[in-house]
Design a protein that fits this description.
single chain; 6-stranded mixed β-sheet; binds zinc ion; ComF family protein; ComF/GntX_DNA_util-trans
């Protein structure tokens, strides 16, 4: 019953459990600084950045959005993403956000894809930007929770692909900066496979930006 009520009206901050607000100013501040450069064990081949560590309010918010269906967090997490992107982007160049793919079954069970929603919100805050959701994970990929880094990389190898003839791809400007966005970066396996899939259609992300990095 508690969880059900949380879905309707968040009674407490997802980051620190302060009552009366879904995401408090202190927790928002924890993700509002300059993005941190991170180096995952599996190198995706492009610079990786995180809004914060996979700990504390950021971690709790990501888990609440992903595992507990806290849709209300898309707005503040998207805004935080926009803040990080505003610092990372090059002036006068269009920005293209590509959300990392989530396994469809997992996304459905969790009540939608929080990474996609946060990216949509981020784009709404950033001038001259668009989201291109072109990445997909093949069926049969197991949830990565509990897998070792090696098993995780093996699980994903070659399984992330792009949607064939995705119409949004035609709208990407020649000089656009592409940034892959995700909620969590742990081993780097998802980012690497995503970057590889984009490279196969001629898109080279300039950076990976995640909410939290382990
Ligand atoms: Zn809080």
């Amino acid at each position: 019953m508690r969880t059900l009520l949380d879905l309707i009206l968040p009674a407490s901050c997802a980051g620190c459990r302060a009552s009366g607000v879904g995401w408090c100013a202190d927790c928002a501040a924890a993700l509002a600084g300059p993005p941190l450069r991170v180096r995952p064990r599996t190198d995706p081949g492009v610079p990786c950045w995180a809004l914060g560590p996979y700990a504390g309010p950021g971690r709790r918010a990501v888990l609440a959005a992903k595992e507990r269906g806290r849709r209300d967090l898309a707005e503040p997490l998207g805004l935080a993403l926009a803040g990080g992107l505003a610092r990372l982007r090059t002036a006068d160049r269009p920005l293209v956000l590509v959300p990392a793919p989530s396994r469809k079954v997992a996304a459905r069970r969790r009540g939608g894809d929080p990474v996609l929603r946060a990216a949509e919100i981020a784009v709404s805050w950033l001038p001259d930007s668009q989201m291109v959701s072109v990445l997909r994970v093949w069926w049969g990929v197991r949830d990565s929770v509990g897998l070792t880094p090696g098993a995780r990389a093996h699980n994903l190898r070659g399984r992330i692909t792009t949607i064939p003839a995705c119409p949004a791809l035609r709208e990407i400007a020649e000089n656009a900066e592409v940034v892959l966005v995700d909620d969590v970066l742990t081993t780097g396996a998802t980012a690497r496979e995503s970057v590889r899939a984009l490279a196969r259609i001629g898109l080279r992300p300039r950076a990976v930006l995640v909410t939290c990095a382990a």
